[in-house]
Design goal:
Number of strands: 37
Largest sheet: 18 strands, antiparallel
Strand content: over 45%
Number of helices: 2
Distance between the termini: 57 Å
Radius of gyration: 28 Å
């Protein structure tokens, strides 16, 4: 958030096990120059365009150890009609499944900015946190002129409703502005995927305090609820959205939008949209047709509003750059040289090896998230999509939106991949979706009777616990929604110490296509050597534990 969009820079990836950045002792340099917002063909001048002209940059980054890298860069560019120069230092460090990114930027003659971002996983909760502090008059294209400090915190997890997983998200955002205003925002969001229908509900609250004495109340403040629904009707994607205000003088219905898309041919799509704004008492209807050509897109649109206004438009757009999915050149309506992109492919990992191989297949219609944003379109028939418009140099988690998975027995393999986008460079990301199965059995104690209240854990081939279960009154245990793969079963350390038994119970438990239920039957606890109490229990037949 501190570094203005600029030239190329090394990137750092975080996978399940941590980071993969520059090798220890490896140094990378970059030097770049480009002319911002310069059209090859222009029919008029845009007087409101304040970021133009030539910009220059130079930077260096060095790997300190396997998980740490440090960098420095210098940028000169036109911002708000005048040339500004920025210097920045950065330090990246991976700790287990977490990545920390600390940076400090100096705008010569103005001020400084400091930023710390961390993302990772704690238990079953994914989190992302960011804090920015401004000292002096620092401003850039990624930092508002009136911002003093900003903090963001977001948690993602999944709740269980029977056999159904419900993705859940909670977020907090706070801003302090230079005029004394402080903005606090909180939101919580949950999704429910049923056959042919996806529902997402969100509750949010925003409060603005402080500021000048004559400041007007912010109409964005208050509590709101929104509902988003996605489905298909007659093969056409239908998306509906409704928002309601829960507090303040203007409580009640606030906004609604409905969109329907229709595939006219392999190269043409039509979209109908209707939206209503209750505050403006206005309803708008729009119909657009997009025709994809080999080197550009032509879009025609007509719209009519209930206040009598109407409009007609014809757009010709294109931008070209390397195609991360399949090679060659691709065309886009975004300015690819200024933002980062990710070419994402999603596949069904039938053999559970985490790689696309024979027997696996591409998955279409899968949504992709990238931090607070998402891909414009789900994956196509080849399982591919491109995420565009990523902020340069800002680490972002690219992951599968599990609400878009077509089957509740499918799960994303891992929590995604963290990339650091670079302007004009597309990063390739491959994400696996794995079918799931179940492992069940009955646990018996040392006295050959069913044992309840014992906590068991399932481990993957790397020895990492992936699920836990507690035995019921009759010794029965069940692990649900376990991704395909090979697992071992053991008693947790705490339960093993209390019972005086060995931890290991079974190995080579395989879940795969055609064998997605492992019935272990009777599983016997084994006394740990030197455990007198359990040895006596086994010899006398007394209840163990």
């Amino acid at each position: 958030m501190l570094r203005p969009p600029g030239p190329d820079s090394p990137r750092c990836h975080v996978h399940a096990g941590g980071a993969n950045s520059l090798k220890p002792g490896q140094t990378e340099y970059w030097v770049a120059a480009l002319e911002q917002n310069h059209d090859l063909i222009s029919f008029f001048n845009n007087p409101t365009l304040t970021e133009s002209g030539w910009r220059y940059g130079v930077g260096v980054e060095r790997g300190l150890d396997r998980r740490t890298s440090a960098g420095a860069s210098l940028h000169s560019l036109i911002f708000e009609g005048r040339r500004e120069t920025y210097a920045e230092l950065s330090l990246r460090r991976a700790l287990g499944p977490m990545l920390f990114d600390l940076s400090a930027a100096q705008q010569f003659g103005q001020g400084r900015a400091y930023r710390l971002e961390t993302l990772g996983r704690l238990g079953k909760i994914n989190f992302q946190a960011e804090t920015v502090w401004i000292d002096g008059g620092y401003s850039s294209s990624l930092v508002d002129n009136d911002l003093r400090r900003e903090h963001r915190l977001r948690f993602d997890s999944s709740l269980k409703l029977g056999k159904m997983a419900v993705p859940f998200q909670a977020a907090f955002h706070q801003m302090a502005r230079r005029d004394g205003r402080k903005v606090n925002e909180m939101s919580t969001r949950a999704s429910l995927v049923m056959r042919g229908l996806s529902l997402t509900g969100e509750l949010s609250y925003r409060q603005t305090t402080g500021g000048p004495p004559n400041a007007r109340p912010d109409d964005k403040d208050g509590a709101r609820a929104s509902l988003l629904a996605n489905t298909r009707i007659a093969g056409m994607p239908v998306r509906g959205e409704a928002r309601f205000r829960l507090s303040g003088a203007k409580r009640g219905f606030e906004y609604a939008r409905l969109s329907i898309e229709k595939n006219l041919s392999n190269n043409a799509d039509a979209k109908f949209e209707m939206e209503h704004d209750e505050e403006e008492r206005r309803t708008r209807f729009a119909l657009g047709v997009t025709r994809q050509f080999s080197k550009f897109a032509l879009e025609g649109e007509g719209n009519y509003s209930s206040d009598g206004s109407f409009g007609l438009g014809l757009n010709l757009t294109f931008s070209f750059g390397p195609n991360p999915n399949g090679g060659g050149v691709r065309f886009s309506n975004q300015k690819l040289a200024r933002t980062g992109q990710a070419g994402v492919s999603v596949f069904l990992d039938n053999d559970g090896d985490g790689r696309f191989s024979a027997g696996d297949k591409a998955l279409p219609d899968i949504g992709i998230t990238a931090g607070y944003d998402s891909a414009r379109a789900p994956t196509d028939e080849s399982g591919r999509t491109i995420v565009e418009g990523l902020r340069p140099y800002q680490p972002v988690l690219v992951a599968i939106d599990e609400t878009s998975l077509p089957d509740p027995f499918l799960r994303a393999s891992g929590k995604g991949v963290v990339i650091t986008p670079r302007p004009g460079v597309a990063t390739k990301v491959q994400l696996a979706v794995t079918p799931t199965g179940e492992v069940e059995g009955v646990l018996y104690g040392l006295s050959l009777t069913p044992r309840d209240g014992v906590v068991l854990e399932l481990l993957d081939q790397a020895g990492k616990p992936v699920a836990t279960a507690m035995t019921e009154y009759d010794g029965f245990f069940l692990f649900q929604q376990v991704p395909y793969g090979t697992y071992s079963l053991r008693v947790t350390r705490e339960s093993a110490e209390v019972l005086g038994v060995r931890r290991e119970l079974a190995s080579d438990l395989q879940l795969k296509s055609g064998a997605d239920l492992v019935r272990m039957g009777k599983v016997q606890l084994d006394a740990r050597p030197g455990s007198i109490a359990n040895a006596d229990a086994a010899r006398t037949g007394a209840p163990d534990g």
